[in-house]
Structures
1.
Amino acid sequence: MSITTGVRAAGPRSGRFRLRKTLAQIEAETNTHGLKRSLGPLNLTMLGIGSTIGAGIYVMTGTAAANYAGPAILLSFLVAGLACVFTALSYGELASTMPVSGSAYTYAYASMGELAAWVVGWLLLLEYGISCAGVAAGFSGYATSLLADFGVNLPAWVSTSFIQTIPAANGTMTLDIGHGVNLVGAFASVIVTVLLVIGVSESATVNSVIVVLKVSVLLVFVALGIKAIHPANWVPFIPPNQGGFRYGIPGIFRAASVIFFAYVGFEAVSCASAEAKNPRRDVPIGIISSLAVCTVVYIAVAAVMTGVVPYKQLGVADPLAIAVDAMGQPWLALFVKIGAVTGLCSVMLVLQYGQSRIFFTIARDGLLPRIFCVLHPKFRTPWLGTILLGIGVAAATALLPIDIISDLVSLGTTTAFGIVCFTVIWQRNAIPDLRPPFPVPLGGVRIRGVWIGVVPALGILFSIVMAAPLLIDMTRSLLNHNPVPASLLMGYVVIGALCYGCYGYRHSRLAAENAAALAAGHAAGDTVVRSQKD
């Protein structure tokens, strides 16, 4: 499908921040990015599964069940999964019409303009880059335990982050400076960086092998765990509320916002559009199929976990290991640890891949330094930017624990998801005759002449539902004299604003092209006026 219809970019009168890319410009970029097209639908599906099944199922599920939802964690997975389904369908339509790297960043640039695109790109750094550091921190715990099973006992300081979180008596969180540097997680980040520099097709092959292994481990866990389930552990299915978000219906939604971290990354498939063989067809397939597989696996694992072990005992760093011990299968414990280590590796691989491609697109637009879009002459990968990102992820892994950033990651992700769904509505109204290869199902309604799609509207609603408990808890922490979560969020916002104000605003390629076009128009007008005078 050739897209020739576009929306004129905003000029100075309508505001610099609202400069937008037209769909024609986006299609032109698709043919000039220089990346190698090597990924088919199976590669993309494996990419999505690889980025999704990781720290969320191995760590966050137990915490959410123990502290918020109890056995009703199954309902929490359904709520979080529904939010992702509506967003996945919206991603599918946008990816079929705008098959370029950049994910939600590119979509926001087309709908709401440059400033909104930068905000989304900065939010995606939370989702991909910083969450990758959190996953690497989780990896180090399982890897250290696995090495100990083989008689290799590493000192605690090489797998402990420099900054530690300590739960306070009032349920808030305080920070403490530890005596370690998480070199194990940092080393894993370095290995992932090397793989990504070598090439995406080679990395995709490694990822596919890891995905098969880790999904097999979880399926074995479910198959053996079914026989060890004690139905009494599911009673009451929804524990009575104990105030705030602790159990009851509020706890189900708070748990959904926690395990939403488990779904972070499925839309990384859209970041691979520029390297897909047939992106208009294959990217929607990869997004939706990977999300479906992950949701089924999550619910099955959570059902067995809460059925084998009383939910209050699952608030540990390795809830799957606790469940395996209760099943009386010591050999399975080793099997699960191997699956966790390899599974978290694939998550790091895809998250860091997605972030490098997003920065590649932002740098091509001039909003980040060009070093992030320099391609390797042989591998055709953005190697310098990938290396810089790898260094940043390794440093964050060495310093930060996983729980200090999980809520921020979920908050940034839900915001980006809401913008993606809104972009579908905007695009349908701005270009009424557009026929996307993959339209969102269920159609839409017109309210005062404005088309509102059922699927994207539900996606926006569920994004708000996911974000609300996070914001409420952050506000409560602030009122309880714990400014850490709010300070981290505000600090992140300030850094993003400074990056755009000091660099992106001054180097925007679209702004320069727009200014040049206006100057050429004025020059042509002056020429006409002079010729008329003559």
2.
Amino acid sequence: MAVKTAAGRAAPGVVPGHADVIFFGGPIVTVTDTPVNAGSPEAVVVKAGRIVFVGDRSRALADWRGADTQLRDLRGRALLPGFIDAHGHLTGTGFQASVANLLAEPDGNVTTIASLREALAEFAVSEVGRRSEWIIGFGYDDSMLAETRHPTRDELDLVSTDRPVLAIHQSFHLGAVNSRGLELLGYGAGTPNPAGGVIRRQDTAPQYGTPDGVLEENAFNPAAARAIAGMHADDQAQFLPRGLRKAASFGFTTVQEGAATLDQLAAMRKAATEFPAGLPIDLVVYVKADEAVQDPDRLQEAQEYSAGLRAAGIKMFLDGSPQGRTAWLTRPYLTPPPGTGADYAGYPVITDDVAERQVRAGFERGWQVLAHVNGDAAIDQFIAAIRNATAALGPADRRTVAIHSQTARADQLDAFAELGIIPSFFSMHTYYWGDWYRSTVLGEERAENISPARWALDRQLLYTSHHDAPVALPNSIAILASQVTRVTRSNHTLGAHQRVSALDAVKAITINAAHQYFERDTKGSIEVGKVADLVILDRNPLTVPAETIRDLTVEETIKAGTTVYDSHRDGNAPD
């Protein structure tokens, strides 16, 4: 029978006694709107992977302590629900950990094109690099390089002229290749730009002049695909486990693969069954929309997990990267990139007809639809596709997600509320590229309103926030800090009016993210009956000064009652 007392609640149908774990001795952030008692709960009891009691410590010990029960004194540390990755690329996280690190501080030390070349050269002679057909690095940011530009083919030729070289921009929407790489891709003088992509040129005459090595969007994608495919199979097989370990080290208990091919989905399903007890944390997969629409029977969308993995729907791509100046805007960029005019505002990746066809296919098949939309013109295109598909097929609780929504306008958030679209903000942009947006990309006025979380709350929208790894490290703490402070690299507060409370920031990666996944009944908060997905932080993010949230550390990550990461055992951020 159920046990319910004024001192706490127990799970219906669960008889007290012989719990697996009892947590106590620290603040418990339940992320619920209704507290168990008048005050905060003192204890959380876990049995068979579920939370069975939340409430008074003395009652927990009296009713649930057995001979084998583990007593976990938090010693002042904070217990929170396990973090839920609202959008990221798990295997990309593993890929990032496998190739040359081209990130700038605080995640790397590449600050010049010379240091970028050094990192690539070191990878070339590493164990993984020697097995790879391409010399690959990930994460350079032209805004953080001393030269404030992309590397050229000639500069990458200094790394190698025999092997193809690929330096991937931190946005994963652009990259630079050497002469050998351009040759293998078939890009030369006279090669036209592909639809939805740009091959940057050394000259403008004749038309389609000699490529300078920098590739955008659909011109870049084949380079990334060939380079990754050219890595040794054993190294590619490590992308998944490396990504899982990295995500767990930041407190994530549910993660996303946000743009898989159908073949990758099949490979991940197979790999999940090869783990002794399934994947250590839950993985939700979204397949690239163009593939899924062409071969819909292979997606096999499922609401239930199998070996810790489920395929949930499709991912669309409508534009590119604001920091790379390929996102599609309604107003021109403050400073257009080389080779463009003053009216340059980016460009779409797909046509309106294709966008509507992909949305409609998702709605018809019951697939959840996610769309990469950074620029406000891309958001307009997505809203129109959703509106038209809804008019044709009728309204429903589809929880369509507008990924990034960097430059969403206030009127577009009104449309989100009307159409049931969830904005998932890449809030860390305020730190990583806020200064770049102000000075080069958008200008002060538009930059202040990127990732407009406060506007979303004002409209009672359940927004989420994500890391988009490998674009950034899957750093949950940085996600929290960026929403609360909106501080840039230069310590400038970018749009103070868009800041949110620490509780709202925590909700964006717990209960709101669970809602986005249709999993709120089982995840996202510390409540009786839910899965015991938990994270222990060294301090409580709700009570520390806002400026110190970024200094919090993940001490332990617990999935269904089992520890999958312990900072004292596993280190701070394993590869």
3.
Amino acid sequence: MGSASLAALAPHAYAAASEIPEAVNTGRAWEVYKSAWDASDEAGYSAFVQALGRSNCSSIDSCLKDSANPYRSPVDPDLVGDCADMAYVLRAYYAWKNGLPFSYQNAMRTADRSRQDLRYSTEGNVVAGRRQILNSVSNAPAFIARIGGEVSTAMFRTNPESGHGKNHDDFYPVKIERGAVRPGILAYDIYGHVGIVYDILDDGRILVVASHPDNSVTRTAYGPNFMRSKPELGAGLKGWRPIFVDGAKIESDGSLHGGALRAAENNAITDFSMEQYFGNTPHPSGVWHYGEFRYQDRTLKYYDYVRRKLAMPGFAYDPVEELRFGLETICGSLKARKVAVDAAYASRIHLRPHPEKLPQNIFGTFGDWEEYSTPSRDARLKVSFIELRRDMQHLVEGVRNGDAGVAYHGDDLAADLVAAFEEEKDACTFTYWRSDSTRVRLNLAHAMERLWDLSFDPYHCPERRWGATGAELETCTDDDVKSQWYNAQRFLRFQAERTYDVRMDFALNELKPPMLAAPTEGGLGVEAPADADIRNYLYGLGAPLAANYEGEGSVVPVNFVADDPAVAFPRWHQRLQQRQSQPER
């Protein structure tokens, strides 16, 4: 990638490592010395999160033990956790080290008092309980370690318009502008995922770090993989609601004693905004999804609006670089999926009998299914392929129509796009264990071709988890019953949308094609998959055909190589690290 491309990937200097203040609390005790987080504390927290995101840490525990964390200490707790745990733990950890107050909602109920899974409630949640540190706690590591067992993505599913007051929530939606969208804020996807923003690039991309149920920590970019929603569900980019200790006495050592917790009202938060829900041009009807996102006299899609609002002046989309970045992001997701599938293989869950029924809902469940299955991860992967395919068509049309917001400086767009695809495809390879302990190597194009055959079911053999056919599948240990399950689930695999409100606990003989039965009668999934074939579209533009343009062909076993990392990051992550290590000119 050339210097111009590196410039496009330049991270905006919202904070610097030098802005991370020295620790106030260095032992196990958490003494509070400030009644509120001020601007310098928030800047320091941004720098702290940015440093961890830019590092190569691959779990919550390794992030806190990484050299990027200046507060690392032998007294720190050993931590594991998923996305919600990481969001709260990093905030609590920073507050502990800096002598700041901290509070978190540890109990929720549905807003409509229905008996739904709080993580996927249809009308959102309200706060029902809270823990807080206003003055001190003697064992901060134990306090922080407890957080993971009490929080989930249900905590983020709140209506921001009613999120202040006595039973305030922990978050508020931020205005889409630089300074408000900053490292340390959160990106909430209503389908059970939350990430932490750690960088905003000069081209407007928002980079996100997140933990997963398998305890791996990955990096990705904010986009359609984080779904918008009605306000009641609280999706989108969220800041931490300011809190303060009111009426505390200051002791002789500067620590606080007594007082009560207060939280800022929405109208007192300068960057509070509902534009993520209603648009910056709300519809007169008040219907949230009728609002428009207007930018320079044009109506844009939400995610395009976010990019353009956050990009530096003069930004224009370069189709070739957009393709590269998108493919590299997808590659990172594939390698993160590999970690999950490998964990299921190591647990030998694929050798257990298949349960008689699917979970109540495959996307939102508990136990072994939540830990080892990948339906939500696979759905986000499918959406990434589909959206990149659509984006490329939109950008190519923009070049042809002379759109000022799209810039291509070459002389053969089709050939350059194909070359970029083939280069990124060849650079994105990974291996997986088959049932007989042999290993095969796949690349990004293999995964794209098999996208709708990748099994999300942890009880399937690893070959089926990776969509194998022919000779590659011959080592699979699945019996006839599991093979029947695989065939019966194909329409669910065709589905890119995550549907948490659909009953799915059907037995094998109850599953039916969706064109023959309603979901309530076992007709789960969709009839046919969407077009996610990026390569086919690119070659259709008229570029010379490569020898393998019709497909990657079959794969063959390879020897085990120890260079397959436990977690692999997108290639842009390493390029950004290289750029950040270069001295300023």
4.
Amino acid sequence: MADIFLGLGGGENQTLNMGRANRHGLIAGATGTGKTVTLQGLAESFSAQGVPVFVADVKGDLSGISMQGSSDFKHADKLQARAKELGMDDYAYSDNPAIFWDLYGEQGHPIRTTITEMGPLLLARLMDLNDTQEGVLNIVFRFADEQGLLLLNLDDLQSMLAYTAENAKELSAKYGNVSKASVGAIQRQLLQLDSQGAGQFFGEPALEIDDFIQCDENGRGYINVLAADKLMRSPKLYATFLLWLLAELFETLPEVGDPEKPKLVFFFDEAHLLFDDAPKALEDKIEQVVRLIRSKGVGVFFVTQNPIDIPEKVAGQLGNRVQHALRAFTPRDKKAIKAAADTFRINPDLDVEEAITELRVGEALVSTLMEDGAPSVVQRTLIKPPRSRLGPVSKKERAIIRSISPVEGKYDEEIDRESAEEILLQKATDATETAEEVAEKGEKEVSKRSRKTTSMWSKAMKRAGRAAAGSAAGAAAAAVLGKKSRANPARTAATSAVGSIVTDLAGPIAGRFVRNLIGGLMR
């Protein structure tokens, strides 16, 4: 497996060993020093070697990675001059296979997950809940699990919270104190989340992680580009989403140890947002996730302006480093420069602290893990130019790329199946009608008739009677097992009955798997 060429430094080619790419990395530097171009060049190289990539496009310009560069574009002369300076005789413009994603569904395919899969711990952090409120949220999830109620979107959670408030006394007797004040505080936070557009993130069809790990017909890894320019206005949602995505990858992917090349490389731009206002316990658990996900074959690269934005325990896991220029304008800047210099393997011929402040645009200090796992000596390096376009795609180009996407039509239309909101509303309606019947006919007479709301099990058998061969049993059972695949078309009616029941249960049970994982990591 060929190493990735990064640039020329110290008279030698500086490369990234593919077998060490899952040992994570850091791309740091002040605004305008070339971090995005470095990221773009790395993503291209991973893709070319069959490694899928995930990148967050926080400024809107990374979408150009899907189109080949052009000599007519801005800065083309500088790119070509740099390629010549580095001896890149094979330099030519080229595009990359890309899939556009967007939590809001505007600039790419929607990304959704269910409330159940997100779990109470990440939701509590997203809503800035205190310990008491988080405890109430845990009770809500526990009760929903036990009642087989699917929490798919914000409306489901709001309905569950309203039900919890109305039945606080009964629930408190079984689960512990549930105060209406705490429920009200959670409901207000949910409304605020909804006003920020977070409601579009929760629902179905939920993202299948396998769709992030694909190659095109030529064996090139797809580059998954998340439109994050609008998402950045809600930084807490951005950080929580990426943490959830890491946890999903960890839960879904099998152990592979140290493969010849990563299964996926994940670029976390504006990485400081993950740690802003995060308690130390959460920092410790993020460090744990980063350390453990390596064995799943996932490489995580943090991209940030200031290297001291990354806590030491996490920074200690980042073996591949590209440090662009920093400016010594403030005492904090000077501290960052010294901290960055101290992380590199010493080069006796280079004053690292001085070099960090002198680096030009497109130049960086580079140190990567060698084949034996030791870091290379830091070198002042001219970074290679990307082959794709520097700058955003047009709306027309984006629409074309989206239309030929391998997931076209899979996530674009939201599905709203029966879940907690509908069931609780039906129960409330049934209770009102039953009370009126009792008043009119008497309790004894009313008790003779069948229940108004069909039980989950009865619904399952009824659906099975109508089911065609292509039931959802396979997909639901796979979800319960932690595997995600499409339904097997060869199903009998009997299997469909079981599968229909599993479909109703799959949300709570599969979600509980993920919540247990995240819960264990965050306690």
